[in-house]
Amino acid sequence: MNYFKPMLSSVLVVLSLSACADRASDLEGKWVIDLEATLQNMGKLGTPPGDLEDMRKSFEGGRLYITPQEVKLSVAGRPEQVSLPYKYVGQASTCFNLEIKSQVHSYCVSNGSLEVHDPTTKLVVVYSRK
Description:
The protein is of the alpha+beta class. The protein has helices spanning about 5-25, 35-45, 50-60, and strands at about 30-35, 65, 70-75, 80-85, 85-90, 95-100, 105-110, 115, 125-130. The longest helix is centred in the first third of the chain and has 22 residues, at about 5-25. The N and C termini lie far apart (about 50 Å).
């Protein structure tokens, strides 16, 4: 009877890993910034109009590409692309918690949109599928 335990453990590990991969796959792919929704969120937080305009210039043309290993960020007019390795650390409803540079970021998927919550600020950047 004990010979079933290793096999059962292996099956459970494979099932949990594949379930994790299925959940994370909702995030994977190409996203483009929804600048108006992002600025609207910031306006609701009381961000001054001048700061909103600076944000518009900084984030315009923003793109996000999520692979199983990393998040890649780029902004129009800037040649460099930032690649950030991540570790999937959990999920709450439609929000995926990714550890990036020792900080947990929430990536929430809903109705074709992705909201990225920065743990160090109140900034929520909204993206749409490309």
